[in-house]
Predict the structure of HEAT repeat domain-containing protein.
Amino acid sequence: MSAMVQESTPRRRIGSAVSREGEEAFVGRCLSILRDGEVDAELIEVLGGNSAGPVLTGRSDGPHGYWVRTWALRAFLYAWTAAAEPTVVAATDDPHWRVREMAAKVLSARASSRCGAEAALERLRQDGHPRVRAAAGRALGRPG
């Protein structure tokens, strides 16, 4: 991967990937990471930028770890299909707080009322991590 691509923002990297493969295909690849734990090194490099290398070599919790799940969720801020919503709602139960926080942010930006997003966000308002509680509160319009 070129240094120019690695150093760009997530929005640019993801936008470029979506332009190449289409939004539905890109979202599907992200869903494969979240649902199946698939290791897609090319996609992980797009999602993580400069941070992807260490993760792919097993550092920072490795390619099956929370960073990859967090990055896959973050991609939904830039690319979306309604098929992603149940997986994002399910991510509110992830064992790592960063994943739950990002799931709340994505639900805030993208959720409909069909998949239980509001109930998941209400539950996250009681989460053990303050950043997760804050993200859920913002998503529900009740910060604090």
